[in-house]
Amino acid sequence: MNPTQIEGTSETAPLRSTSNTVSPLSMTAAGRTFGTTYILVSSLLGSIIPLIQLIIGAYYREDCTIDQRIPTYMIVSGACGLAMTGFTILLSIVFMCFISDSTALHIIATCSLCLTIVSTIILSAFLFIWFIFGCIWVFSIRDKVEFDDRHDPNYCEPVLYKSAYALLVIMIIWSILQCCFSCFRQCCTGRSN
């Protein structure tokens, strides 16, 4: 420790705090989790599904008479998924750029982190609930949907319905794989420390 003399006294003040306590929610620990290339690449790859949802839902928004909520599900899910990807990328960039050097734009980084984290939590909760509704709407009519006769009240555009169905299944599998990979990564990182 490198103390400095306080003017007019015989006391010295330390340049750095002598406290070595680490908060359980340490910013460096969070930075190691969110400020990684894995999170950035995973977010970019994850943006493919919402983009596909948004495009297909918007293109076929009037072509599902059996349940008009399916194209609406696709549009809302795609738009919110892209917003979620943007928040996750912003969070990752903030952690990579600012957390390693806590003096660089500390106030901006803190405000940005708080805003991004709160927005991400709210949007995640909404997307989770919306995902459950999408599963109910799409999977419940699987045996009733008609793909050939546009005038049938059970008609739904095959591209719209089949892509909604497939994307829901892919998202379920993707979520399971993400959880497994994150747990595996945490276990391996925990042992090496």
Q: Which helices and strands appear, and what pairs or packs with what?
A:
Elements: E1 4-5, E2 12-13, H1 27-34, H2 37-46, H3 48-59, H4 69-99, H5 106-139, H6 158-192
Antiparallel strand pairs: 1-2
Helix pairs in contact: 1-4, 2-4, 3-4, 3-6, 4-5, 5-6
InterPro entries: TMEM272
Transmembrane segments: 37-60, 72-95, 107-139, 159-177
Region (Disordered): 1-23
Question: How would you describe the shape?
Answer: elongated
Task: Please give the alpha-carbon distance between the first and last residues.
Answer: 26 Å
Q: Which class do the helix and strand fractions yield?
A: mainly alpha
**Helix content, binned percent:** 55-70%
Number of beta-strand segments:
2
